[in-house]
Amino acid sequence: MHERSNSIVSRRVLVNATPVGTLEQVASGHFVFTYDRDCDPANFVSLLMPVRLASYSWHDLHPVFAACLPAEPVRGLLQEQLIRAGNKDPFALLDRCTVTAGRWQVLHSAAKPAPPDRQATAELMEATDSRTYFQSLYAQQYTPTLPLSTLSLQRLAVAMDERYLYRADPGAGSEIYNEHCCAAIAQRAGFDIPEVVWSADRRVMRLPRYDAGPKGRLGVEDLCALQGLPASGRYTTSMERMVSVTAALVAPVRRRAIRRELFRRTVLAHLLGDTERHLKSYELCYQTIDDVALGPLIGLCTDWSAPPGDPSLKPALSVVDQRSFVLKKGSWRRFAAHCSLADREASAIIDWVSNAWAAEQQALREAATELTRPWLRRLEEYWAIGAQRLRTAY
Question: In the predicted model, what is the mean pLDDT of the chain?
Answer without folding.
Answer: 86
